Amino acid sequence: MARVATAGVTPDYWDEACRHLVKRDRVMKKLIPQFGEARLQSRTDAFTTLARSIVGQQISVKAAQGLWDKFLELIPGPANRIKPVDVLALEKTALRAAGLSVRKVEYLVDLAQHFESGQVHVRQWAQMDDEAIIEELVAIRGIGRWTAEMFLIFHLMRPNVLPLDDPGLIKGISLQYFSDEPVSRAEARELGEGWAPYRSVATWYIWRSLDPLPVDY
Is there a single domain that holds both residue 123 and residue 192? Predict the structure, then answer.
């Protein structure tokens, strides 16, 4: 079955955020113009985004893509809109045969059950603050705070997330602001306060300074 990629959705605050950061921060003033029209984009629905994050845990980007492609072969319909009921209908042996570990199979099933039963309140997320959404997501097996924060940035496109557990962010801050000296979480948090209310955007550009190819979820 052909799987067609959909056009991404870009945050409406992006240009204003860039202007704000360029005025406020010497590193952002240098970084942001380097990446031209590149923008954060969200391409999939909530369930698909979280399923992909589980499949890709603790393996390389290349390996994660290969495993995801095998997983998609088991699922009917478009690649950017996987339904929880379709995952629940799969035999666990089929998921294992596609290369998923026992634990990842358990996580995917738990994720699907949370969505199918209404334990996650997708329609209310727009009115919920970031921490309330994180609390709801980390109740799902296999989703920790880092995954929840990536979801806030890449899917919900929340503007002011600072994922202090992300090694790329810490490494990028070290390189760009501290001449490659080690940086503590406290130092990164303090620096990030200067990026508010657009910490997600600044984080995205820090990631780009390490890897110019944007990641889409």
Answer: no
Mean pLDDT by runs of 10 across the 217 residues of the chain is 50 96 97 89 86 86 87 83 93 95 96 94 94 96 93 94 93 95 96 98 94 66
Q: What is the largest CA-CA distance in the chain?
A: 55
| Integer Cα distance of 81 and 43 in angstroms | 10
Amino acid residing at 53? S
Residue 5 within a domain: no
Q: Are residues 93 and 58 in the same domain?
A: yes
- 125 and 62 share one domain: yes
Angle between helix 199-210 and helix 185-193 axes, rounded to 10 deg: 120
Domain total in the chain: 2
- If one counts every other C-beta atom within 10 angstroms of the C-beta of residue 68, the result is 16
Query: Which residue carries 């980390």 as its tokens?
Result: 138
What is the residue-wise DSSP string for 116-153? HHT-S-GGGGGGS-HHHHHHHHTTSTT--HHHHHHHHH
The range of the structural domain enclosing residue 65 comes to 46-154
Do 149 and 194 reside in the same domain of the chain? Answer: no
pTM of the complete model: 0.85
What is the b/e burial string over 20-58, where b = at least 16 CB atoms within 10 angstroms of the residue's CB? bbeeebebbeebbeeeeeebbbbbbebbbbbbbbbbbbe
Q: What is the DSSP letter of 6?
A: P
